[in-house]
Amino acid sequence: MAPTPLPLEQMPGANAGYLPAGQEGGPRINTMSMSVLIDFIIQRTYHELMVLAELLPRKTDMERKVEIYAYAARTRHLFTRLNALVKWGNSVSKVDKSSQIMSFLDKQNMLFVETADMLARMSRETLVRARLPNFHIPAAVEVLTTGTYNRLPTCIRERIVPPDAITPAEKKQTLLRLNQVIQHRLVTGKLLPQMREFRIRNGRVTFEVKHEFSVALTVMGDSPNVPWRLLDIDILVEDKETGDGKSLVHSLQVNYIHQLIQARLVENPNALSEVYNCLHYFCQSLQLEVLYTQTLRLNYERLDDNNVNVEEYLPGVKLTVSYWRDLKSELGYRLTVQSDPSEIGRPLAVVHVPSLGAKESAEVADRAVRSEHLSMERLIVHTVYIRSVSRLSDLKLEFQALLKDVDCEFNLQGTPAILTVPVLSPCLRAEQIHITIDTHTGMFRCHVPKHLDCPITDEMQDCLNGDRSKLPALLSELRFWITHRRCEKTLQHLPATATETLPFLTLPEQELLQSGRHKIYVKLHRHPNIILVVQLKEKPLMPNEMEYTFHLGFVVYQKDESDVPDDSAKQLVSVVSQPPSEIPKFYTKLMRLIEFDTFVATHGPGTEVDEISPHKRKSSGDILAPPAKQQKTIFPAYFIPELAHVVAMCDEKIPFLNLAQTLSKHRIPHSGLQVEANATSLVLKILALPQPGNNHHLTNASNAEQKQMPPASNFSSMPKIEQHVWDDLMKRVLSISVRSQTNKNSQVRIWVVEFVFYSTPLQSTHQKEQGSRRTVYLTYEQANHDFNKTVEELLNDWSKIVYLYTLVYDFAEHLRNKRLSLGDMLVVKSYSYVNLLLGYGPKKEVTCNIYWSVQSHGLRLTFVGGISAVNAHSMMRDQLAQHLNQQHSLTAIAHILHETYNPMSSIAKLPVLPLLGIPRPQVPVLSFCMLPQSPCLMRLTYQAVYCLELRFRANRLVSIRDGASSRFERNVIEEFTPIQGLKAFLSKYVDESAVYRGRGPHEDDNPLSPMGLEDNFGGPSSVAGVSAGGSSPFLGAGMRGPQSPRDSGLRFPAPHTPPSSSNPHTPASPHPSAGGGGGSGGQNHGNFNLTSPPAPHLPHPSPGGLMPSSPLNPQPSPHMVHSPGPNTLYMQSHQDSPFTAMSPANNNWPGSPSMPRPSPRPGQSPEHKSTGGGGAGVGGTAIGTRGSINRPWAGAVPTLLTHEALETLCRPSPHPNKDINVTDMSPLERFLGCVYMRRQLHRNIQSEETLTALNSTEPGVVLFKVDGLQCQVMLNQLHMQSLHLKVTQLPPTPDKPTFPLNPDDLLVIEQYFDTRVAAPPYRPNALHSICRLLNLPVHVLKDFVQIMRLEMKPELGGEQLKWTVQMCMRMPPSAVPIVPIGNASVVLGRMKILFFLHITRIPYNGKDWKDSPSLVLPIVHDIATNLTQVAERREQVQSPMMAAASTLLRRFADFGGQQNQCSLFPAVTDLLTNLQLTADLPPPPPNQAIGPVGVGVGVGVGVGVVGSSPNAMIPMQQLQPQVGHGPQ
């Protein structure tokens, strides 16, 4: 069976090149993919369209139409063909199969054809020339059988194969024999001395002449006639400077010399001498050529003709070079390198002109010529060095002859050679004159290394190179110049500057100050009017040593010659600096000159200056020799100890002398300047200081006399210093010392005054104040040079000590008095005679620092808080200081601090942060602002609208009243608004039993010394014409304060005489004078019954008579006759005044609810009587009292609260309404916020046309109506900390029928108002939004009610809702800026409603609320078209989520709306259900606090609410400037 042919692609080698690549088994060529074809057609169509779009605008209308038609027809035809092709492509599978079959058949056919072609080519071309060779059978048999081939010719072996070599033994024996022959030839022959260095090895002899050549010779036999054979020549001459490492002799030259010498060796009896002569001459010529080349290159590259010049050069003979051509000499300076003409075998010689010694000349030749390093530069340098040493040696002898009397050492050393000449003794090497010679020119050069800028060295250098007669004078000038520099170096670290001249207008007459004298002026930095003149002299016997004379001069500064100084310039006290407006004074005038005794100045106590040179040791026999450790202190030579000591002495003592002179001028005795023990420092001891301000202080009375004096009579500006107090202080002063120190940080000198006292009268708890020795350090600056000011500051600080001691002296006695219990109130933490630090409070951790202030001429207080508490007294620091400066009693301050600490701490808990959105969104307003009036009077303002007046009283009581009511007139302060309902709110915190707690019979029967109840601390009511006891014109008597919480004012004066019995419930009989002053008081108070017990309707007696005496509550004096105040007469004569309602006769206020209040304990209150036993009068009185607290003016009557009640009132606490979940606020802030919101609502009703105000018979209730609804806003009467809305449906009218709301809808509106609008934070703009919503049509309002219900109860939406919703009552910062931030976010206009919804994604898949995205959507509802959509701005790009929400609402409007139903709530529900998250949703902004919905309050605001719109306060940093503001 025939084999089956394989497919072409599976056949081996089938794809080797017979088919086109990529076409094996594939489709035929000229095919194209359908996708590529379609792509080409589309690109062509698009390209033609683009070309058409560019060309058509330039053509006419008809041409454009023709082109467009042609393009359309052409494109239509093309796509028609494409359509036909696509339809034909449905049957393309059959065509593909046929194509593959045809391709396979073609491949098989090609295979057969190629096989036949290959066979034909082989038979015709390859096999024709194929033949076998004619093999050499014999040779092959021989090689294969024997392995060798012996038939080659012998000539090949003779010519190619070398003979056998000799053995190593024979070779060694031959070389030894040859060595013997060479040695014999050398011994028997004539050998030159220069060739005595040779070595024989391996049958050859090698001669080496150092630095010239090396040659190798041998002999070719042992016969004496056999000539020498020259083997090798090596020239040893090198040029290491200019040769670049190359050989100086070419190989051809060496071959030539080799042939020449070899020729001369034949038949020459002195063959070796001939070899030496030839090579020696050649090498010397080569050396001279090298030196000549180096000289030319040195002259060309580095030197010039004036320094080195080639004078003569004879090749192979000599080379002459000259140097120091600028130096004037008869012969000149030159050297010659030449060969020895007398003896040819000697090396090159060096000849010097002028001649040098044989030793020096040989040394030069050995260094530069006869060495491995052939160098002309080394030859010249060494020659110049020897010349320099020679010249400097001559100069050294000249200096030694010049300074023969001076004990100094001259040194000549170094390379190049340097001669050092000391000019001073001792002298540093850097201060010596260094003289050397310029190697190029040969001239002398001199300098002082330490003073390179010395101008004398140039003159000395000219002198050395020329006439040397001026050399001694120049040396002397150089000594003085270096001494000047030493003085400057010595003063480098001292506060002084050395100068050689001063700008004198006229030269002083003193001989010392004449020009040309060697002197130095030393200016003291700290004393501009003092100069120190240092005179310099050479010692007669030792010119190298200096002696110094010091003079102290007093100078003044002048503008010109007409400026004549006064005699005060001669004093030590420095002149005060001139005003900056004057012309600067540049010129100096000497006033006086004082000469110092140098020995006395430098040998004071502990200030001896060693006269022995610091470089020499003291002898062992010195008695005053210091210890061995101190001998190591060696001063450098440039340091002048005498000058440093004198400058330091002047700088240190002059301020003391100035200060002592100023103290004497102020008549302050002192002991003069002294040196302390062991010479530690200077000290100026003050013997006594005067008593400060004797004529400015009044005598201070005793405590008993102060109680009897009127309040205005014991005020004094300065404390009175009693004589016994002054004597006690003087006994405690042990010493007063003045020292001078330097501040380590600023390096400024300061005065340190040390006061040493013996103990203190007031013991403190500070651990450093337990000993008997107390020191006080006071510091003063010395930089101002005004010693009068320093003394005045010292006296002022002394007054601080004295005045504070005056108060402490009395306070110490009171502190030791156990009856006053001051130790329980406070603790003395520190008393340093300058400051008194008191600790008080529950843990004694808050501190009060008391000190005397010179600037304010009074005592000042500073307060610091503790670790766990803050010190709230800092806000009334000025008032406390004023009280202390008036009373001068630390005991009173201690009582005030103790009594007011708790209420002040409570007040400090109130927030004082600025808030935005009240009343305008972008104007910040302080929430609370504390305005202290006196130590016991504080005013609190709330949002700059309301004001509270607080008075601190004894027995832990505080009285509070409305600060908007004037205390001097019967009107309201313009800046503030009365707080409606304040009295009723405060009454809920009144503890009536606390007012009478601790009262005893003796307190009622024996009242203490009287003073005003409220204004005993210099308060506003202490003004003349206003009674000292009343805090308000609404109070009755002048010497009484606020009564019990339900007291409306006492109508009869205080008792003049104490009652006869001790029954606390029996009132005293009125004084007869009260009847005459009361006018018609009998008619107004006809119901008063003075029997015991009183009727229940009687006002309570004044608690002022029930409180013990203290600085906060001094009692009225029994000797003061009371007269009714002007406000009492006013209320008695004006029966139609609204303030007469305080009377028990007018107590029928309608609708006044009964307020629960704490019950007083039996036996302590006048109204402890049971109400069940009373008649109708009792009930009527109670109603009248409760009704009066809701009056607008009722807050003007003070209300007494305990410290605990005030703490409860000011401490942040949870909201009483559990449905309102906000941050903790104080009850007072919530009450004032509600009152403020109610006030703003009333203003909105008056300004809005759509709201109609209604009259209300109930106080504090805002009643208004909108379209079909009547709204009533009132405070919660239970706690008065929240506002409540009551909405009722109005009956329909014939002309305007209404659609009633369900009761559930009304309840939702009320709850939303309570928990979202009128809740913290209190923002009035939220009221605008809710009022605008209430004014909407009923069908639209119902949808808003549904949104409110869904916001408050998100669970009503079911599980299908993906988002929670929250209505924004104010414009949030993160929303689209359509409305200014913070304004009302509900806007009505043109039958459209704009409002904002804040939606948050409900967490899923285990996520948290904080990770949920949120979005603020501006929604617009068109009432006319019933269309709800997202408000969009054309110029703003929407976010993806905003665009998705807008698309969703548009789709709902197109397909999901119903015509007979409002589309608002359905659209919002559809949005919350179907809004999906997108992949590119950005994370929530950082200012958005995300949390669950339903826990926020107020305008969609609260803790943990979603988004940024519910923020309680809009941060000021997030506000953007907006145009316009919302309604106020």
Biggest sheet statistics: 5 strands, antiparallel
Q: Indicate the overall shape.
A: flat
Order of the strands making up the biggest sheet? 13-14-15-16-17
By DSSP, the count of extended strands is 42
Structural class: alpha+beta
- Uncertain stretches: 1-27, 573-579, 611-633, 695-716, 998-1186, 1484-1528
Quaternary structure annotation:
single chain
Q: What does the radius of gyration come to? A: 61 Å
Mean pLDDT over the full residue set: 76
Helix coverage percent = 25-40%
Continuous helix count: 34
Portion of residues in beta strands equals 15-25%
Distance between the termini: 114 Å
Tell me briefly what this model is.
By secondary structure, the protein is of the alpha+beta class. Helix content is 32%, strand content 17%.
Notes on the structure:
With 1528 residues, the protein is of the alpha+beta class. The protein is 32% helix and 17% strand. The chain has 34 helices and 42 strands. A five-stranded antiparallel beta sheet has the order 13-14-15-16-17, covered by helices on one side. It has a five-stranded antiparallel beta sheet with strand order 18-19-20-21-22. α1 (34-55) runs antiparallel to α2 and α14 crosses α17. The chain is flat.
Helix and strand arrangement:
Blueprint (H helix, E strand, L loop, with lengths): L33 H22 L5 H28 L3 H35 L10 H10 L8 H6 L7 H21 L9 E4 L2 E6 L3 E7 L8 E8 L15 H15 L5 H31 L6 E7 L3 E6 L9 E6 L10 E5 L4 H11 L7 H27 L8 E3 L4 E4 L11 E5 L6 E4 L8 H10 L5 H20 L5 E4 L19 E6 L2 E12 L7 E13 L28 E9 L2 H5 L38 H25 L4 E6 L6 E5 L16 H6 L14 H10 E10 L6 E10 L14 E9 L5 H30 L5 H4 E6 L4 E5 L5 E8 L4 E7 L12 H11 L2 H19 L5 E2 L9 E2 L1 E7 L2 E6 L3 E8 L3 E6 L19 H6 L4 H4 L5 H5 L66 H7 L2 H4 L41 H8 L42 H13 L10 E4 H8 L16 H21 L4 E3 L7 E5 L2 E7 L7 E7 L13 H15 L7 H10 L3 H15 L10 E6 L18 E3 L2 E10 L12 E9 L4 E4 L9 H16 L8 H11 L54
Antiparallel strand pairs: 1-2, 2-3, 3-4, 5-6, 6-7, 7-8, 9-10, 10-11, 11-12, 13-14, 14-15, 15-16, 16-17, 18-19, 19-20, 20-21, 21-22, 23-24, 24-25, 25-26, 27-28, 29-30, 30-31, 31-32, 32-33, 34-35, 35-36, 36-37, 38-40, 39-40, 40-41, 41-42
Helix pairs in contact: 1-2, 7-8, 9-10, 11-12, 14-17, 20-28, 30-32, 32-34, 33-34
